[in-house]
Amino acid sequence: MATNVLQMKGIQKSFSSIPALENVDFQVRGGEIHALLGANGAGKSTLMKILSGAYQADHGGIFINNNQVIIDSPAAAKRHGIQIVYQEVDVALVPSLTVAENILLDDQANSSRSLWIQWRKLFVEAEEVLNQLGYSLPLHKKVAELSLAEKQMVLIARAVKQNAQFIIFDEPTAPLSIEETKRLFEIMYRLKEREVGCIFISHRLQEVFEICDAITVMRDGKKISDESTKTTSINQVIENMLGKSFGEEFPKTITTIGETLLEIKNFTNEKIKKVNLHVKQGEIVAIIGLVGAGKTELSKAIFAADRIQSGEIFLAGTKQRFNHPIEAINQGIVLVPEERRKEGVLVDESVSTNLSLPLIKRISKLGWINRKTETGLIKEIVKKLSIKIPSLSSPTSVLSGGNQQKVAIGKWLETNASVYLFDEPTKGVDVGAKSDIFRIIGQLAKEGKGILYFTCEFSESLGIADRILVMFDGRIVKELSREEATQEKLLLYASGGKE
Amino acid sequence: MKDKLLGFSFKYGAILVIIAVFIFFSSVNEYFLTYDNIADILRSISIVTLVAIGVTFSLIVDGFDLSVGSTVSLTTVVVATLMVWFELPLWTVIIIPILLGASIGLFNSFLIVKVRIPDLLATLGTMYIVSGLHRTYTKGYSIYNEMPLADGTTASGSFSESFLFIGQGRILGIPVPVILMVLSVIVVHIFLNYTRWGRLLYITGGNKEAARLSGIKVNQVRMIAYVLSGVFAAIGGILFAARVGSGQIDSGAPLLMEAVAAVFVGFSVLGAGKPNVIGTFFGAVLIGVLLNGLTMMNLPYYSFEIIKGTVLILALSVTFIHLRRKA
Question: What are the transmembrane regions (chain B) (predicted)?
Answer without folding.
Answer: 12-29, 41-61, 68-86, 92-113, 120-137, 171-192, 223-245, 251-270, 277-295, 301-323
